[in-house]
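Postdoc handover notes: sequence design on the structure in folder B. Input tokens:
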């Protein structure tokens, strides 16, 4: 009798059990945690809803230290956190802007250091890495777009095919083609680890990213390849760089670690978009539970591509590329499941709409009335290069802002998209202004309705 009776556990007991479970299994989502909790406490009746609330209430204690949410002042919303890139020399790109650190919620941003006038080109920037839009990626796989800078090569292939260069392996397994020697040389930063001939274990990973149209996963593979290869070049002059013989990974690692970050689990708890924000068209369907099985499959493919390929022959090839072992701190941060999810979160938050990750561009915050725009002007020679142009005059000290959403949308739609991507309630001037307008309108409509009703009743 009593053996079949289940009880609703008291709050404190339940809370303690949940916290210890979550600490033990930080990557588990609500559903799995719920199942685990009930299997460990067979007499308990606990709804997923109650579990979710307890997790939410005890967020601070269940999260690993390094990823603790910034202390929100009045709200409990989690914001992406970003830090300054140590030693970043902004003047490499522009003398007109500087980096400013605001606070823990807002993180960093860019402000004008000198007056900027409407139409001015503020800077041009080549990407740190690119995970291009899928149409371009498919052209790369078909040897019809540059595997480094993503520029389509069709014109060149028909007019002067001999100028288009092949991957250095010249293997038929690798479809990579390059615009010129510069692109070929710069591709050494990432290509060897993503080349089907040099690192066959990367093929399943990139195939998985392609099948799932998962741009953040592709971008994370590109970033990882770049950092691991940079570490191999210590003591040698870095490819495509002019900074002599410092360990290139340190610099790349500083940038990567300082990117705005919100882990996938945190995103999932807020029902935020799991795939690529800014280019994701499936919002708001992501309100549903994200598919953790997909994350786990992706994580296995990721580890197999860069750490432990499933076949001995592939392991040998990978070992040839990675002779120097990756520092433990970096390996842990990249390849643990938790680190992987945070890596995906970083990519999702920082990719430019066309899939590039840019050092200076990644500092830009959002406003629904942006004062700068990002263009891909060099479409025929360097598609992935961006040009930042002032949309209006910007005074010294003013922040440079881009828009992450379609600015022609209404305030509710804009806010809901931004919220969906984890940026919280947009409080830019325009949103505040339009919100006021909307509520005034509402009041006006209420008054109209009241008048009509009264008129109908013959009161007026
Ligand atoms: Zn190129
Ligand atoms: Zn290749
Ligand atoms: Zn806004």
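Designed sequence:
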């Amino acid at each position: 009798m009593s053996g079949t009776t289940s009880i609703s556990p008291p709050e404190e007991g339940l809370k303690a059990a949940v916290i210890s479970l979550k600490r033990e299994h930080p990557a588990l989502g609500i559903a799995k945690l719920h199942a685990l909790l009930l299997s460990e406490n067979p007499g308990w009746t606990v709804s997923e809803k109650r579990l979710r609330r307890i997790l939410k209430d005890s967020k601070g204690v269940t999260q690993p230290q390094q990823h603790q949410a910034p202390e929100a002042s009045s709200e409990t919303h989690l914001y992406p956190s970003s830090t300054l890139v140590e030693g970043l020399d902004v003047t490499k790109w522009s003398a007109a802007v500087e980096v400013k650190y605001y606070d823990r919620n807002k993180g960093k941003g860019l402000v004008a250091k000198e007056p900027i006038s409407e139409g001015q080109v503020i800077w041009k920037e080549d990407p740190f890495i690119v995970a291009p839009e899928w149409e371009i990626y498919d052209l790369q796989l078909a040897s019809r777009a540059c595997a480094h800078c993503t520029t389509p090569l069709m014109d060149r292939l028909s007019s002067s095919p001999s100028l288009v260069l092949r991957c250095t392996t010249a293997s038929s397994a690798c479809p990579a083609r390059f615009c010129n020697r510069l692109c070929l040389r710069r591709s050494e930063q990432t290509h060897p680890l993503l080349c089907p001939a040099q690192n066959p274990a990367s093929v399943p990973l990139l195939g998985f990213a392609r099948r799932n149209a998962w741009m953040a996963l592709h971008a994370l593979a590109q970033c990882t390849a770049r950092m691991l290869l940079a570490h191999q070049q210590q003591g040698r002059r870095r490819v495509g760089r002019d900074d002599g013989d410092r360990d290139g990974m340190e610099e790349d690692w500083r940038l990567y670690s300082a990117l705005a970050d919100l882990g996938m689990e945190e995103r999932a708890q807020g029902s935020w978009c799991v795939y690529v924000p800014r280019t994701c068209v499936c919002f708001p369907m992501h309100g549903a539970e994200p598919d953790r099985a997909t994350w786990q499959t992706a994580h296995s493919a990721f580890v197999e591509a860069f750490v432990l390929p499933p076949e001995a022959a592939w392991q040998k090839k990978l070992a040839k590329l990675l002779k120097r072992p990756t520092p433990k701190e970096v390996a842990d941060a990249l390849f643990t499941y938790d680190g992987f999810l945070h890596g995906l979160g970083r990519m999702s938050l920082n990719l430019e709409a066309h899939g590039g990750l840019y050092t200076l561009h990644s500092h830009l915050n959002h406003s629904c009335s942006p004062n700068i725009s990002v263009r891909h002007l060099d479409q025929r020679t360097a598609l992935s290069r961006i040009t930042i142009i002032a949309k209006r005059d910007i005074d010294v000290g003013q922040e440079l802002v881009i828009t992450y959403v379609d600015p022609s949308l209404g305030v509710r739609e804009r806010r809901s998209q931004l919220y969906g991507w984890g940026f919280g309630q947009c409080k830019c001037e325009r949103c505040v202004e339009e919100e006021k307008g909307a509520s005034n309108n509402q009041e006006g409509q209420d008054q109209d309705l009241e008048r009509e009703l009264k008129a109908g009743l013959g009161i007026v």
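Context for whoever picks this up: The pocket of zinc ion (ligand 3) is lined by residues 368, 414, 426, 428, 430-431 (CB under 6 Å). Don't rerun without checking with the PI first.
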